[in-house]
Amino acid sequence: MTDVKKPRRRPRSDGQRNKEHLLQVAKAAFTAGEVDIPLDEIARRASVGIGTLYRHFPNRDALIEAVYRSELDKLAEAAPVLSARHPPVEALRAWMLLFVDYIAAKQVIAPALKGLLDGPSTLYAQSGTVLQTAINTLVAAAVESGDISTDIEPIDLLCALAGVSNFSAGPGWEIGAKRLVNILIAGSRPHKPHSLQ
What we know:
By secondary structure, this protein is mainly alpha-helical. Helix content is 71%, strand content 0%. Helix 4 packs antiparallel against helix 5 (88-114), helix 5 runs antiparallel to helix 6 (121-144) and helix 5 packs across helix 7.
């Protein structure tokens, strides 16, 4: 008698909802400075059993990594969505504003990431590739549309925004960083030759 393999079941929608809710609760705790919050407390706040938490995240490191990756995924997934909805330069502007939010989230998660067994360096290296791909695509489209100068290096835009977060890391730095987005976009426009009088 031959074994018939059953097709793998798709995750139940309530299971996916539980997972996303656990990530939100964990992120909120890390944001509030509760780096060492017990996993059973996260489960309690998410109104799920500890078994449900462990089913999605087998250990603390897995949960912390998932919170970080979730923020990164949102940013990566936003690039094509914004490109489909907006003109190229506006898609680039909107994505850069989201990048500021990502930096803010990364800063609050950073203390928890430092506690990872292997450290955060592997995660950060992977995020660099994701971010570079997204910004390269958006800038290329804006260059092609004629809205951005051909001599703009996409990575410089990210470095400028990350630099603001490092230079003025106090409360409210995001407001200045978001103002900088408009300055960077304006400064990236093609230069018009001065007409001689």
